[in-house]
Amino acid sequence: MREIAGCILAGGKNLRMGGEKKVYLKYQGETFLDRIRGNFRNFPRIYLSVEDRGRYQEEGMILVEDEVPGAGPMGGIASVLRRCREDAVLVAPCDMIFLSEASIEKLKSAYEETGKPVLFEGEFLPLPGVYTKSMLPRMERHLESGDYRLKSLWEKEDYVTVKGPGKEELRNINRIEEYRKLAWIPAKEAAELLKNAAEEISETEMVSLKEATGRILSEDLAAKEDQPPFPRSPLDGYAIRSCDSRGASWKRPVRLSVTEKIYAGQMAKHRVGEGEAVRLMTGAPIPEGADTVIRQEHTKPLADGMVEICEELKPWQNYCPKGEDFCKGTVLLRGGKRMDFAAVGMAAAAGYEEVPVKRRVRAAVLATGDELQEPGEPLKPGGIYNSNGYLLGARLSELGVEVERSVRRADDTEAIAGWIREMREKVDLILTTGGVSVGEKDLMPEVFEALGIRKLFHGVQVKPGAPTMAGMYGNVPVIALSGNPFGAMVHLELLVRPVLEKMTGSSFYAPEYRKGVLVSDFVRPCESPRIVRARWEDGRISFPEQHASGVLASLGECNCLAEIKGRKEGVRKGETIWVRMLANNL
């Protein structure tokens, strides 16, 4: 029986991965090595081809060091074939993390049936594949001549092919940028991670109704009294007994004696008796004995203190009973309610002079970058104004957050880390903008590491602003947003609002969605979800002429964000999509 072992290529010096060992990179909680090794469970032995044994931990596999340094995969495979006891090895690179066990078994079965080298059919791919010891002499000649190309090795080889999987399964992760994108998580998952990690604010305070607008109630408010506290007239007219109006009309009016006149805020001195009426103004208490109010337009006042009733009324017609609006003890406003004008009015009607509210969320905003200057300063060559700090601070203020401080710092790891360390003692939430991508001065990953911030994620599957990262500094969320203005704003809406919802216990921060029909195209390719500024009006959605992520000028024209979900052709006029409103309930 032919024997075959597994062989995993560890990835050489990993220069294109920034020097990070591919085998130890993680995807969905597993290292690359563990993911690929799981596909070799039916092999008696697995060899790990490495460039230097001393740089790898013992992984329960047979480590084989490259005998010809710098020869790439061919050098590693040749070294394993020289060392192995088996007749062949099935070779796969450690960064082919989507390769399935079924595909590995196809290659293995083909070798066991034929005894020949095996590759997948279709476009030539030298890996994964079965390399036999019969290939070793030719391989050594290639190594001696300096021809390390696997393709030239296979050109003169007698081998078989089997039907392969799709391209996605055979995809390699070759560059650090690819890996970072691979590690990006969906926006919904990122928001949930942050929301679950954040803590609800427990401190409360009492504020007067004059200061309550925009605050979040910390507990339910129940009615202290019935509203109205007495039967009330909804109009100007006369309080009467409905039975006294029986048969009344303009042709045959009924005459009643007017005993008194009552305005709002006054109480009747007498009960309404048979044949009597009391003149009432809107809002006045309805006296006892009366069960209806006839509007003054359906009466004729007479000079002798009498009034003619020209309409027959039913009991309780035009009659507002005690507690019609709400009864004593009724819960009027629930804890977590954001106090708007209607809520303030209701609390006042219920007799509340002040209400219990959550302490405001306190946040600090830091804009990073050597190029940033404050508005009003003369711009230096290459300088730009710090718009992001003001943009984010203003949006947080609109959302009811107390912005403790909004500052800027140059690209200096120690200065940025020192500021965050200081702010942690003063605020509930820290936002930074800039320094999260892969440039030389993108320092936020270093800052997180220096401070020991527990990283939740780095990269979100939404453009613009995809490199956003976040973590927990003790119990304080730190969200490092893109330096791209619109990208920073997008991720504030997607990620910060859920945190505010958790901290305040208020559903006010949940987004409002509306559906509409596009009146213009957006044809920019969107292989991953993309957020585009838009305007919703009467069910019609339009895009501004300028929607580049670095452009702020068109932002003022927009009132919503449109999500274009992973479509290479974009979206076209006439399509129906959902948008996320920016100004819901503000």
TrEMBL record:
InterPro entries (UniProt xref): MoaB/Mog-like_dom_sf, MoaB/Mog_dom, MobA-like_NTP_Trfase, MoeA-like, MoeA_C_domain_IV, MoeA_C_domain_IV_sf, MoeA_linker/N, MoeA_linker/N_sf
Cite the MoaB/Mog domain residue spans from the record. 364-502
The alphabetical list of record keywords is: Cytoplasm, GTP-binding, Magnesium, Metal-binding, Molybdenum, Molybdenum cofactor biosynthesis, Nucleotide-binding, Transferase
Q: What is its EC number?
A: 2.7.7.77
Which coarse location class describes where this protein primarily resides?
A: cytoplasm
Q: Name one Pfam family in it.
A: NTP_transf_3
Q: What class of enzyme is it?
A: transferase
What residues bind Mg(2+), as annotated? D95
Q: Where is GTP annotated to bind?
A: L9, A10, G11, K22, D66, D95
Requisite cofactors:
Mg(2+)
Q: Which SMART domains match?
A: MoCF_biosynth
Q: Where in the cell is it found?
A: Cytoplasm
Q: Does the keyword Transferase apply?
A: yes
Q: Does the keyword Transcription apply?
A: no
CDD domains for this protein: MobA, MoeA
Query: What does the protein in this record do?
Result: Catalyzes the insertion of molybdate into adenylated molybdopterin with the concomitant release of AMP. Transfers a GMP moiety from GTP to Mo-molybdopterin (Mo-MPT) cofactor (Moco or molybdenum cofactor) to form Mo-molybdopterin guanine dinucleotide (Mo-MGD) cofactor.
Matches recorded under PANTHER family: GEPHYRIN, MOLYBDOPTERIN BIOSYNTHESIS PROTEIN
- Domain remarks: The N-terminal domain determines nucleotide recognition and specific binding, while the C-terminal domain determines the specific binding to the target protein.
Question: What name does UniProt use for this protein?
Answer: Probable molybdenum cofactor guanylyltransferase
What is the organism of origin for this protein? Merdimonas faecis
* Organism ancestry: Bacteria, Bacillati, Bacillota, Clostridia, Lachnospirales
Q: Which gene encodes it?
A: mobA
